[in-house]
């Protein structure tokens, strides 16, 4: 029970931060929408005139965007990504500032909750330690998208005199042109005139913008779509499989391997489970555990879960024949991997050793020794160490 306390406390800290950010996101979204659609929510305290109406109008739209970004942040925090923690500390003060600038009845809870959430997220820094939020290709695609939007915005702004009269009068108009062009929406309200320079710029931006926008959609959203299909089909995504390195492979999932999986998960040891039963894979996946559905005695599933890069393999399917085949295959694919096997039948311990297992443990023998020793008042830890040496 003592070992469960740090894990439980960490889970509670993560949930606390996620709830704070999620509620703030909803409030920011609702407050922004209310400010856009309603005009009579202001306090009559003489401070409304301090904030120009044009600024309040702009803030109402950005509050909606901030709310959406906070929802993304809450998801990142739920997955314990370090980047989500940093993003929350940037967006929460911004959300509070937007609430102040809106000066509306609904903005008070937004300001208060944003300020309360900042220390709530900050003190739980240690709970968010996952770094692999975006892959290198995703970072490159996102950078290309931002760069192309910057190019389109800057070009449209500097060439604003060459576009439709009065179409671009502020930097936000140039950004509007960049977004609708790159996304291929093209409302037609901002177009280049007869100027050759403006038309050439638009042609180059069409190529750069559409290419970067399409690449970003495929790279950033592709893994999420792939994960949905993988979840439905009971397999891991290729990107998840590629991240496995120096990990533990658990062959089979049953009452015997449940404590093994729980212990590895609690100790944050990277591992993956191979099972041939889709329903068991679904149970594990719902718990957030990496699982691959396939026959563990075949080469393809072991290759897929990175047997060449694994530090060890645990064979415990409750079927000694199945375990022996999995051990033989794993040893052939990676002669250096450490293999630990659980013998359901104590008579099969030597057979599993000959198959290639480094260590073979019989849960029934170990349990019998421990029970007998405990009943006689002996030291259970000593007998456990002796059985493991054997």
UniProtKB/TrEMBL annotation:
UniProt-annotated location(s): Cell membrane
Keywords linked to the UniProt accession: Membrane, Transmembrane, Transmembrane helix
InterPro entries, sorted: K_chnl_dom (IPR013099), NAD(P)-bd_dom_sf (IPR036291), RCK_N (IPR003148), Trk_Ktr_HKT_K-transport (IPR050721)
Pfam families with a match to the protein in the record: Ion_trans_2, TrkA_N
GO cellular component, as recorded: plasma membrane
Domain annotation RCK N-terminal: ranges: 245-362
UniProt topology in membrane: Multi-pass membrane protein
Spans traversing the lipid bilayer: 12-37, 57-77, 84-104, 110-128, 140-159, 174-191, 203-225
Broad class of the protein's primary localization: membrane
PANTHER family assigned: POTASSIUM CHANNEL PROTEIN 2-RELATED-RELATED, POTASSIUM CHANNEL PROTEIN YUGO-RELATED
Name of the protein in question: NAD-binding protein
């Amino acid at each position: 029970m003592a070992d469960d306390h740090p894990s439980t406390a960490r889970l509670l800290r993560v949930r606390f931060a996620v709830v704070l950010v999620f509620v703030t996101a909803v409030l920011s979204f609702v407050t922004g929408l209310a400010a856009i659609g309603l005009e009579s929510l202001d306090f009559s305290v003489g401070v409304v005139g301090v904030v120009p109406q044009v600024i309040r109008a702009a803030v109402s739209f950005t509050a909606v965007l901030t709310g959406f970004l906070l929802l993304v942040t809450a998801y990142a925090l739920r997955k314990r990504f370090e980047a989500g923690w940093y993003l929350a500390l940037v967006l929460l003060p911004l959300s509070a500032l937007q609430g102040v600038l809106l000066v509306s009845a609904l903005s008070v809870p937004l300001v208060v909750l944003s300020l309360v959430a900042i220390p709530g997220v900050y003190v739980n820094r240690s709970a968010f330690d996952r770094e692999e939020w975006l892959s290198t290709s995703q970072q490159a695609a996102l950078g290309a998208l931002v760069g192309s939007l910057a190019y389109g915005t800057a070009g449209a702004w500097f060439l604003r005199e060459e576009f439709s009269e009065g179409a671009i009068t502020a930097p936000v108009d140039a950004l509007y042109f960049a977004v609708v062009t790159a996304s291929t929406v093209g409302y037609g309200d901002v177009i280049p005139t007869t100027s050759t320079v403006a038309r050439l710029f638009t042609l180059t931006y069409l190529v750069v913008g559409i290419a970067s926008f399409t690449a970003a959609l495929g790279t950033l959203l592709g893994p999420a779509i792939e994960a949905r299909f993988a979840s439905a089909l009971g397999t891991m995504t290729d990107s998840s499989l590629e991240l496995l390195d120096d990990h533990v492979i658990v062959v089979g999932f049953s009452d015997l391997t449940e404590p093994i999986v729980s212990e590895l998960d609690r100790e944050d040891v990277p591992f993956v489970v191979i099972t041939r039963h889709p329903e068991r894979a679904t149970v594990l996946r719902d718990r957030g555990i990496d699982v691959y559905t396939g026959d563990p005695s075949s080469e393809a599933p072991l290759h897929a879960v990175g047997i060449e890069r694994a530090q060890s393999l645990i064979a415990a399917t409750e079927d000694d024949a199945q375990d022996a085949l999995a051990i033989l295959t794993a040893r052939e694919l990676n002669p250096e991997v450490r293999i630990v096997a659980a013998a359901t039948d104590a008579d099969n311990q030597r057979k599993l050793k000959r198959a290639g297992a480094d260590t073979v443990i019989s849960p029934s023998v170990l349990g019998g020794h421990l029970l007998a020793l405990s009943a006689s008042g002996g030291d259970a830890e000593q007998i456990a160490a002796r059985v493991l040496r054997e």
